[in-house]
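Sequence design from tokenized structure. All designs in this work follow the same two-part layout: the structure record, then the generated sequence. An example of the structure record is given first.
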């Protein structure tokens, strides 16, 4: 597996997260984000189960540009 770094939250107080990568082999997005609150998880469970091997993360809206770039990279490299 080879991850391509796309970007970090430019306003992160400690400069470490949230972060986005694209897996060069699978084109999957890999996202490091903030742990959600129990209240947020409960609201998500209203739409379905959260399997044990999955989690819910929160990514700030200000990271939208980085997510768009990651999606473009994933789609462009698919061709």
């Amino acid at each position: 597996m080879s991850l391509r770094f796309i970007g970090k939250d430019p306003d992160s107080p400690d400069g470490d997260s949230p972060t986005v990568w694209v897996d060069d082999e699978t084109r999957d997005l890999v996202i490091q984000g903030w742990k959600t609150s129990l209240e947020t998880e409960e609201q998500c469970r209203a739409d379905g189960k959260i399997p044990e091997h999955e989690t819910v993360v929160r990514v700030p809206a200000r990271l939208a540009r980085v997510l768009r770039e990651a999606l473009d990279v994933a789609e462009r490299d698919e061709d």
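The chain is about 25% helix and 25% strand. We note this feature because it recurs in several other targets discussed in the main text.
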